[in-house]
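Long-time lurker. I teach an intro course on protein structure, and each term I like to show students one example going from raw sequence to a predicted 3D structure in token notation. This year I'd like something fresh instead of my usual example. Would anyone be willing to generate the tokens for the chain below so I can use it in lecture? Attribution to the forum is fine with me.
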Amino acid sequence: MRCFELMWLRSVAVGEAEYQRAERMLGPNTAPLLAGHIAAHYWQDNDLLVYRRSDLGAQSYVLFDPASGERSELIDTGRLAAALADLLEREVDSRELTLTGISLTDDGGEMQFNFEGRRYSLALAGEYAPRQLERDSPGEFLSPDGSRAAFIREHNLWIRDTATGELTQLTFDGEENYGYATDNAGWIRGDGPVLKWSPDSNKIATFRHDGREVGDFVLWDTRVGRSEVDIWKYPLPGDEHIFMIERLVIHLEPEPRVVFLDMPPDPHRSTTSDHVAGDGGVFLDTQWSADSERLAFITSSRDHKIAQLRLADIEDGSVRDVYREEAATHYMAGFIDENWRVLHDRGEFIWFSEQDGWGHLYLHDLASGELKNRITEGSWLVLDIQQMDPEAGWIWLLASNIEGRDPYFYNLYRVGLNGGGLELLTPEPLHHDISWSDSGEYFLDTMSTPETPPVSVVRNRDGAEIATLESTDITELLLAEWQPPVPFSVKARDGVTDLHGLMYVPAMLDPMESYPVLNYLYPGPLGSSVGSRRFLSSRSDKQALAELGFVVVEVDAMGTPGRSKSFHDIYYGDMGDNGLPDQVLTIRQLAERHPWIDLDRVGIWGHSGGGFASTAGILRYPDFYKVAVSSAGNHDNRNYEDDWAERWQGLLEYSGETDPVRGYSLSNYDNQSNPLLAGNLQGKLLLAHGLMDTNVHPNSTMLLVEALIEAEKDFDLIVLPNTGHGFLNSRWFMKRRWDYFIEHLQQRRPNGEFRFGDNIR
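-- Reply from a regular --
Happy to contribute to a lecture. Here you go:
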């Protein structure tokens, strides 16, 4: 482009109307344009389904009985809004009455719900008179029958009788950094306990968490005067000491007693996550038998290569090893939840393995550990065991890549434990989100694609459709000039494997114009760029950026989950790869198809792992990526939590040699370090980090900043005081990100006066 044209473009400011058009594509503005949309749902104990229906922003609540097929309005939102307004002594808009956590009593006469952070009870007959309830402490873990709540006090485990309020101390020798049921993985921590209740609510499987020798991380807030300091334990790759757990069972009746399992402490590891705690503090890889008398669990080696299935005698603490798998790279038990099950009454267990290159299920003998038969096989992936009927010999599972469709579309299947009778229960060629009733007799199936709005049906466990509940109408969305992302497929770096992604283009795209490209990425290995293939009215701010005059591209590159083992492990031991070869090839292939894509103006952005990857992009491909915005990046994984890096990069090993120029010790982690590539920077780089980020410590960005200064490189830096990890789409930073790309890729002047509406947080 000639110099006078560049000068003219720089003098052109982005108009207020352009920002407003982009803002209209953000989620808070697109979601209210959906009609007949199930925004949330809640299965009840008696198989009744309650769901929140959104109609152009107005909320209503529907009760559906799959046994009878009857459907009715659960509440009068106008009356409830008026009653809440009287109770709270302020106006409550019935159209925006968003209730969560809805539960009905067995007789259906009373409803409990959450509204604006408070819990209420409402009698559904007679006058609407909601009353506020005392909520369980956020640090409590409720037993299955609701009679007991476990919590931590001064590093010991206690329970509260929910009926009487009586407190009982269960352990007595807990101490700082050596406490019971502690929720701390370094990168994430909480006040509540990590445990697994037995089905009868009379026993607890948990651990004592040993972090006494683990090193500290430190942060301090920004305030007038002396800062408040946060110091906590955070293990790093290569540390001699990491978190260890000592497993135990607590019997609550007739009197509380603690039984430690007779085994050495094992590393703080799980087969599906980089924490031993799942949602709500559930102790991962720990399973009780249905009769609450037997306990099974998996221990993982520090490097995740070895998974060992074990059974515990909960009376004397003895432990029996049942089965062991060792992987060349890492072992995973599933990509959504753990897919192993112990079938005590059958004397068998189900094991998930990628030993043949795909994730499948295998049936083994519980006594000997020997394989009895394969349950699933083929060039496809078992995603999640959803339901089981061991007596009848059936499993219901989510799987992908079977039907020759988009390999990221989920479908529900039923298969026999003997490996026979695989049956598709969701035949529509769409992505299926499945939610089961507590009894397992029914499931809600919401089917859609990124382009196709959702249709929600209820089916029975055989897959027969009981009723169509809602079909989302996007007429108003289309009238607002919204358009869906464009699905595409390209070839990966090997020239053979298909990659799948989404492209976002301006609604008023002019094929005679030339558009700069923005590449959004999250490299994995536990996540991906695109995410779910369900319909969403807004996927972050990608369409908004398109409306500002960009083509936005995201693709699930090799190294992300949801495909074959070899696909997932493509850059094991070389995290600096980040799938970037596939990202670059994707954009080049799209440019061959679409002449309006400008390969001379390519930008890249991402957050957290995507912040690491986007910086790696501009440093490793400086002739391709001209601008990068990288936020909260773990730019050198020697400075990030041990579990993440040691799983995907391997254990840290120093070669004993020293770099002759820079003087640092060489290791197998050098190939992933962004600071070691700082001298490659040619384009424009904006780095950002929150100074109270307890996940990815701000040191990760400061290490890169130091290296860039030493290399005498120009770059831009934003530090956000009193800000944690999740600021990517905060209104202030999102505008900064937009403006950085506008200025440096479009060569236009951002509008510094524009402000988002109050609904954009």
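Some talking points for your students: The longest strand covers residues 597-607. The radius of gyration is 27 Å.
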